[in-house]
Amino acid sequence: MTRRFPSPLVVAAALLSAAAPLPAQRPFSGAAEIEQSLYKLNELGTVLHIAAHPDDERTNTLAYFARGRHMRTAYLSLTRGEGGQNLIGSEQGAQLGIIRTQELLDARQIDGAEQFFSRAIDFGFTRTPEETLQKWGHDRILSDIVWIIRRYRPDIIINGFSGTPRDGHGQHQASAILSKEAFTAAADPTKFPEQLKWVQPWQAKRLIQAAGFGGPPAAAGGGRGGRGGRGASQPQPAAPAAESTEPPGPSADTAAFNPVLGYSYDELAVLSRSMHHSQGTGAMRRPDGARSTFTVIGGPPARDDLFEGIDTTWNRLPGGAPIGAIFADAIRSFQPAHPEKVIPFLVKACPLVAAIDDPLAKVKLAELDETIAACAGLWIEAQAHQPETAPGANFNVTTTVVNRSTAPVSFDSARIEGLFNVDLAVKPGPLAYNQPATVEFSRAVPAGQPYTQPFWLAKKPTADAYQIDDQLLIGLADNPPAAKVRLHLTVDGAPIEIVRPVHFRYADRAQGERLRPAVIVPAVAVNLPMPVALFPDSASRKVQISVHANVANPEGEVRLELPAGWKAAPASQPFKLERAGEQEVVTFTVTPPAGETTASMRAVARVAGRDIANGAQVIAYPHIPSQALFPASDIKLVRANIKVTARKIGYIMGAGDEIPDALRQFGLDVTLLSQSDLEQGDLSRFDAIVAGVRAYNVRAGVRANHSRLMEYVRNGGTYVVQYQMGDSPDPNAQHNANQPAPPPQLTFGQNTTPVTTNLGPYPFAVPFGNKYRVTVEEAPVKLTNLDSPLLQYPNHINPKDFDGWVQERGLYFAAQWDPHYQTVLASQDPGEDPLAGGEIWTRYGKGVYIFTAYAWFRQLPAGVPGAWRLFANLLSAK
Ligand SMILES: [Zn+2]
After folding, report:
1. How many angstroms does the Cα of residue 615 sit away from the middle of ligand 1?
2. What pLDDT is attached to residue 254?
3. What separation in Å is there between the alpha carbon of 740 and the centre of ligand 1?
4. CB 867 within 8 A of CB 800
């Protein structure tokens, strides 16, 4: 066990893959998994695929290289997809990024690739790479890509995009522009020399452009398979294949069937992409498909295969040749029912692999140890006794090893690392067949231990990039585990080392076995009702703070820390809780200053001498491991004069937004309308009814009861419909908000057009695609009809009300409308024609109908005062 003294450089490279995700399920196991591992041990090629977002990746290409060619394969998504629309819940921004991170990790479990991210944040749809690079910081994100290339050391880099306007989304273009620069910069020691403390310069052999989606055309007849098994969510190829005059470039048989796994790579791609629940990319397998084609844009040309002329055998490493021969023997000797028979070959290779001081050899050594453990049927687990532990409480872990084969295995030693660095009390000795050997560990978590947070959220991000102080964390997909156990075993005479994160495995009665990371949590969480408190006049209002116990018997007091000019009473409130999971609500009266202002307040609980200023939030969905985060218990205080005459609001929740809570915070009486309310409820009791974002897209009951809603308007109601998506031209396809729009053909009453028309009392058209949106949140907005009641009552709107908006102005504007409608506002992105269809309205019977595609679902929860005044006018329209 003296074989491992790798250089710091080697450690840094190996660490990049250390954050193994907690699988929602294991797609492959047993003989299929072991056979894959054996082939992978004898394959030294590495592929890095780069694009901008979760769901941009060519999943079939990842599956082909990872599962078919057994290469190390990774997808670098520059962002975590924070700016997209959430199809499964109300999470937005950083929280949506957390969901998409886990969805990508689930997808990678299926296609077999690894996952990386840069610090870039998806700030929403943009038309230009210039805006993207300016917001992200060109050098910052270039440095991240260079860092990941230097650590992962790919032979080939595959760009998903071309870096030209054909890519559509400005972030797509920027991903390719930066990747091209990084291909050269990673090899240049004068570029980002501060990284050379941990890594060496690295020149990838080839830079590749994947076909379709802004690149060269996909293979003839490529269809879904040729475009990466992405179905219709993949933008169209730049030109039909038939018009191509380019010679056929290198390609990959991504439609090939893998009999060991029982799927083609295109099928794996569909299964993998279907993990992106929050994007609605669920798709269906198809047996057909074509080769994926590529263009070499950097490095030596290649005629047929992307790895032409690149040695991916052990011969590429000094001292590697005999290792390749041994692994070839192992593969020849593999019998699915008796994997232990290959252990002697693997054991023979161990010292030879360990002797090579090269980052790739160290990665292979860890793979080799895992493969030996798999061949020996070893069960190795570090199980926390509870998923959450507070500082000061005991962190209890049971480490279990079981030998489920006839191979001779001894358990030599183990050490817990991370939270603690302590040797475990292992009784060294041989493991009896199927007899668990367990080691207990229990120690108090240090009082000052930081809480477990997604590392990219530990510091407040700017709007467009995360701030990460530890260079070694940059690029990682997920948190390193709070604690892990490093075990040393001897299998058939060879020492191996296995690392397992400390996790919490449990049974959910409905879903079966589930896994969560073991995390450190505050003793109590100080939860605020909303991130924003609005004071529409100078009157005081009550603010409720809920204290949630994560441990038994916490006791203390809560206080509010307020900026000058604001007052709270009382000064503090005591609380006393008994059981973990209980909560208590305390109430303060907060008085704002007379004048308009914006400030920040913090709620702090003092427990056992420690101030806790964190709330707790768990993001839980069946398809991903639950994610806990502990945001600062800060609340934004907005003192702004806002008048509203409506009181009772009916809200038709669509795909999920936070407007109802925001309206309640404002003091309105909000009722969420159920299916039966829509069918037979008394709608006349509401001053206004609001349709949530995409309500007409996701709730059949809304369309079905549209005539009742129109009757409500006719009888004097006010009905406000927020943005709805245009229908996709392919009824079997899900719409990807990132793709360029097909040219709209606006013909009312004909079924051939990709538009949504039946949202109001008179027709108007919302086209499918991105043309009719305003993505720049500072884009000028013109008040085109200043006398309109929507701009005058009860709040007088002026241009300043469009200051301070977040992410975007609006999306899915109407493109054409019946002459009964009046317009109010016009806005456009730089260089575009003004769009007047963002807000149209009409009187109908005794009531008012308003369609408004401005992004209220972002502005109201963010407490943007002008947006509140504008929206208050919509609710108050008569
Ligand atoms: Zn994208």
Report:
1. 32
2. 95
3. 11
4. no
- The answer to whether residues 447 and 612 touch, using CB atoms and an 8 Å cutoff, is no
- Given a contact cutoff of 8 angstroms between Cβ atoms, the answer to whether 808 and 737 are in contact is no
Cα 227 to middle of ligand 1, angstroms: 14
Token pair in block for residue 215: 């690149």
Give the three-state DSSP class for 524.
strand
281 C-alpha to center of ligand 1: Å? 12
Nearest to 156 by CA among 365, 54, 257, 301: 301
Using CA atoms, how far residue 780 sits from 236, 463, 777, 834, 869, in Å, is 32, 20, 9, 10, 17
Please tell me the predicted confidence (pLDDT) of residue 728.
55
Instruction: State yes or no: pLDDT of 320 exceeds 50.
Output: yes
Q: Specify which of 66-75, 261-270, 507-516 reaches the highest per-range mean pLDDT.
A: 66-75
Find the 837 Cα to ligand 1 centroid distance in Å.
26
H or E segment and range at residue 734: none
Q: Using CA atoms in the order 620, 626, 631, 636, what is the torsion angle rounded to 10 degrees?
A: -10
Tens of pLDDT, residue by residue over 179-200, are 999 999 999 999 999 999 999 9
52 C-alpha to center of ligand 1: Å? 6
In sequence order, the 6+-apart residues with CB closer than 8 A to the CB of 617 are 95, 628, 629, 630, 631
Q: What angle do CA 122, 123, 129 make, to 5 degrees?
A: 85
Give the phi and the psi of residue 278 in degrees, each rounded to 5: -70, -10
CA of 125 to the centre of ligand 1 (A): 9
What is the distance in A from the centroid of ligand 1 to the CA of 738?
A: 5
CA–centroid distance, 168 to ligand 1, in Å, is: 9
Q: What is the per-residue pLDDT across 738-759, written as a single tens digit (0 to 9) for each?
A: 343 343 344 443 333 445 668 9
pLDDT tens digits for 781-803? 999 999 999 999 999 999 999 99
Compute, in angstroms, the gap from residue 172 CA to the centroid of ligand 1: 6
What are the pLDDT digits (tens) for 599-651? 999 999 999 888 999 998 888 888 888 888 888 899 999 999 999 999 999 99
| pLDDT of 800 | 95
pLDDT, one tens digit per residue, over 258-286 is 999 999 999 999 999 888 888 877 788 88
Residue 688 Cα, ligand 1 centroid: separation in angstroms?
A: 37
**Stretch 648-664: mean pLDDT, rounded?**
93
Name the amino acid, one letter, at 228: G
The structure tokens listed for 325 are 């021969």
- Cα-to-chain-centroid distance, residue 48: 19
Q: How far is the CA of 61 from the centre of ligand 1 (A)?
A: 17
pLDDT of 291 higher than 80: yes
* CA–centroid distance, residue 813 to ligand 1 (Å): 21
Ligand 1 geometric centre to CA of 357 (Å): 39
Count CB atoms within 10 A of the CB of residue 332.
10
Element (H, E) at 331: helix 321-333
> Could you tell me the pTM of the whole model?
0.82
pLDDT digits (tens, 9 = 90+) for 429-469: 999 999 999 999 999 999 889 999 899 998 888 879 999 99
CA 235 to ligand 1 centroid distance, Å: 10
| CA pair distance 109, 23, nearest whole angstrom | 7
Would you state the structure tokens that stand for residue 404, as one six-digit string?
Answer: 């489920």
Distances (CA, A) of 434 to 376, 405, 437, 493, 628: 11, 8, 9, 19, 35
Q: How far, in Å, from the CA of 83 to the mean position of ligand 1?
A: 10
CB 242 within 8 A of CB 220: yes
79 alpha carbon to ligand 1 midpoint, in Å? 9
- What are the residues whose beta carbon lies below 5 Å from ligand 1 (ion)? 52-53, 56, 738
Question: 70: CA distance to ligand 1 center in Å?
Answer: 27
